[in-house]
Amino acid sequence: MIAETIFVGTELLLGNIVNTNATYLAQELAKLGISSYYQTVVGDNKERLKGCIETALSRSDIVILSGGLGPTQDDITKETAAEVFGMELLPDESCKADLLAYFAGKNMQMPECNYKQAMIPKGATVLRNANGTAPGIYMEKDGKIQILLPGPPVELRPMFAEQVIPLLKKEQKEVIVSVMVKACGISESDVAQRLSDLITGCGDVTVAPYAKTGEVHLRVTTRAGSEKDAEKRIKPVIKEIKSKLGDCVYTTHEDVTLEKAVVDLLVANDLTVTTVESCTGGLIAARLINVPGVSSVFKDGYVTYSNRAKRKIVGVKRHTLDKYGAVSEQVVKEMLAGGSAYRKADVVVAVSGIAGPDGGTEEKPVGLVYIGCSVCGEMTVKKYRFFGNREKIRESSVAQALVLMRRCVLEYYGKNTFGKVKK
Amino acid sequence: MIAETIFVGTELLLGNIVNTNATYLAQELAKLGISSYYQTVVGDNKERLKGCIETALSRSDIVILSGGLGPTQDDITKETAAEVFGMELLPDESCKADLLAYFAGKNMQMPECNYKQAMIPKGATVLRNANGTAPGIYMEKDGKIQILLPGPPVELRPMFAEQVIPLLKKEQKEVIVSVMVKACGISESDVAQRLSDLITGCGDVTVAPYAKTGEVHLRVTTRAGSEKDAEKRIKPVIKEIKSKLGDCVYTTHEDVTLEKAVVDLLVANDLTVTTVESCTGGLIAARLINVPGVSSVFKDGYVTYSNRAKRKIVGVKRHTLDKYGAVSEQVVKEMLAGGSAYRKADVVVAVSGIAGPDGGTEEKPVGLVYIGCSVCGEMTVKKYRFFGNREKIRESSVAQALVLMRRCVLEYYGKNTFGKVKK
Fold it and tell me: Which pTM was predicted?
């Protein structure tokens, strides 16, 4: 089955918003095993939109449109799509009730223009919208399908996930099963080498690697007659990946982030954590705190940006700063020591580096970053050289700090409890 | 003049990367006053790509392609685009020299396959690439223009800005001048109301508002026969916007961010700053530290996530926490007081809120956030209610904290130095 996507909106043509809906729908279609050869962006213009829909229907089985379902005169997607299918728009009582309830919930009266949103092409399936006013539409004619979704991602995503995917799965003869294996602390080329057979292999199961900052994700996909058969095929491949990448693999769950894996590891082992950040300036703390439930292990964090702050807050010695400079292994070690001694945390992560654009020298160039982690007093400090602008260098530093934290906790327990780390 | 963009790459069709090139090029074309009605994404497939280029050339004057200029067999954009124009590919000595120098600079020998990148359509203009191996191409035939750009944004953006824009400006009979006015601390609807004449007005100068988290940006654009004439037209409009929005306007420079405006204000007035963050967990510090040169005013920051950290680090009283709860005006006031008394900073910003998904109650729902700022001891604490997920609530909190900091500094100086704040 072939699908293609059309995004309707002048704001996309003007570059006012990034088309994240395109990325989301592309990923979801790929997971369903539905091929997609084109994506089109077009403005709120009837003639041009109609041309795009007709072209798309001539070369694909399914056309998914997003945007242009609002209540104003500019919103013409539904009218145009219905016209292409030769379908009449009729008022739909349940849509009208949904709309009235939506406005009542906000203590507002429904504006007259919103009644337009309750007009539905005759014979179409309504996709209810719990997060906005525009209902979605699923309509079929002569073996072709048009799916109309609202533009705002907070409305489009749940509607697609909860209502469209089940409908598309029914259209598919085969079942696609896909698992995301996430690894960290290993380079993309190293992963590619270790898994070369699996990645290039043209077997039933495909393994596609994606490089992320500090991480490599592997999408493992197969299609089969039933979910059970697909899972049976995928299982040994996941096992092989795990055996080849070892504990670099931190999850096989799509929605587990690296910071969540780190926080889970700390929580499972009852380890409190503190952050002592210079160039990352609070970003490590911020990423850890993005994990709900972090409060049982994260109590406090410190941004020691100036030399004085490094001395006063975590007791870095003036002598060390003078002799080695703030961006040095020695200073990061003292930041770690101060973090555990003064701040009484089991795990301390500390970072000092030169994020640029100024401040670099030949000996200590922009991008030089020292990252350290101590677990119950055992310290590790590593030297890194990152590239890119200030933002990119800081982002890379945060990712590597999380990787190092995970590695240090795993190794500490590997040595000190005969490998009995709780994961 | 009408342009359209085509993005070539299977990774876009699979959703592996977000199409930020589309956004960038759309913005730049709009700034140049070049209309754009379509954007297309297509895979690395010769037949389909050729069809897309032909369709685009039939309805637009300029077709900009990005991606597919690499050295592998999969990269077919240049070959296909040249074929459509009936142009032969010939080896280009200066391109070859650039490539050899690029690899020599990395102490690497150039792989054989990269010679393909030095093949240039006969009669085309080469766009040199200082950031990668693929040269860009600018070629014209029968009044139509094709522009080929590399896919990686770090290569595409400087090439477009430095080499393509001057070429496109030559094609334009008129000059477009565009200024971005950025305002904060005012809602989009308030801006729309105050500027309704300018926004709906169909005069020579257009004013288009864009809502950002905590901010409203206004793009003011006009076209004229010369740059001087355009600027003469724009000037009174900018003046009118400033007079209607007052000091909510923080810059008229495209590349000045809100955090930069705040840091500049602190630097100009010699005010040191510290952060005392609970639910934002280091994000305010991180945004301030994203501004190069912040070190003269930002020395240290604190993430006081637990109640104990609030007590130990900034001296919030146990009694206050027990009586009012951590998310309260009273606690934020004590965080501010502790920030200035213990941490000796002129300006303190403090945040405590419920970012969710858990922890909300009927009285204190998820999204309730108190943000405070003190300037030389004068405190302001405000109550906010944000919506969205944990990430969104934290992002909104950070934006509003920056807005509040700016407001408090301006007001402090307004009262205490007869309005002589340095901006």
Answer: 0.82
